[in-house]
Amino acid sequence: MRERLEARRLLMEKMSMRSKVEKEDAKNQEERLSMEVRSLLVAGTALSVARKRLQESNRLLAGEKGYGHLQKLQKMLRMRQQFMISQVSFLYPVKILVGPKQEQELESFPSGNRSGNSAASKPVNPGSLTILGLHLTILPFTKMSLFTDKKEVQRSATALGYIAHVVSLIASYLEVPLRYPLRLGGSHTYINDYAPSIEPTSDLSSNIALSTNTKPAEFPLFLEGQDATRAAYAVFLLNKDIEQLLNYIGVKSLGPRHVLANLKELLRTIQSPEYIDT
């Protein structure tokens, strides 16, 4: 009986110890649950505040000074840009010479939709386009010789000065910083290229320092007293600026040799009703 009583006492002690451990575990779990409940209450309060702010923001966006007002301001800005650029187009008209031989070219001038699908139409012959009555002849820039017509060279330089002025005005109205800035000077206009013209070396840090301190290279948009290769490269950079503006309004370029055609497409697209509605 004593042995049984001792065994029963030991069993009761073990059960008491286990009960104490389980009681401690239950107390710890209760504390953790209470902390989680408090954090849930705080999160619920924050969520309620955020929901109220979201509702208030939605109400403001749907109001008179919300998203609709922003769309109206954007439309007014585009209308203002369109008006100012139409004045530029009036000052520097880019026209197609219409005649018996150019009539087909006039009809096949690309419509220039905003998706950039201009491959379906035949590009205009660059010789049929004029700006303020002047042709832009690229041939002297590639094949300059003693027999080249000096007046034709002067007319092309003047036309390039007009184009550069138009591009500069449009870029300022659209607030687009040109990749190749222009230094306007009429028929003696220059275009800048900030790309470093240094040979790569093994020292990367020196290359970075040189590229940051390199002054822009100026290229003439005229041939008088200039190297023909540098002048041809200047025309190429000018067309790149026009392509930049075309890409900005979502229109595909007609190619690197269509300076006036790209400019005409730029002016036509900006003056179209689709420009305001987008």
TrEMBL record:
Source domain of life: Eukaryota
Listed PANTHER family: UV RADIATION RESISTANCE-ASSOCIATED GENE PROTEIN, VACUOLAR PROTEIN SORTING 38
Name this protein carries in UniProt: UV radiation resistance-associated gene protein
Organism phylogeny: Eukaryota, Viridiplantae, Streptophyta, Embryophyta, Tracheophyta
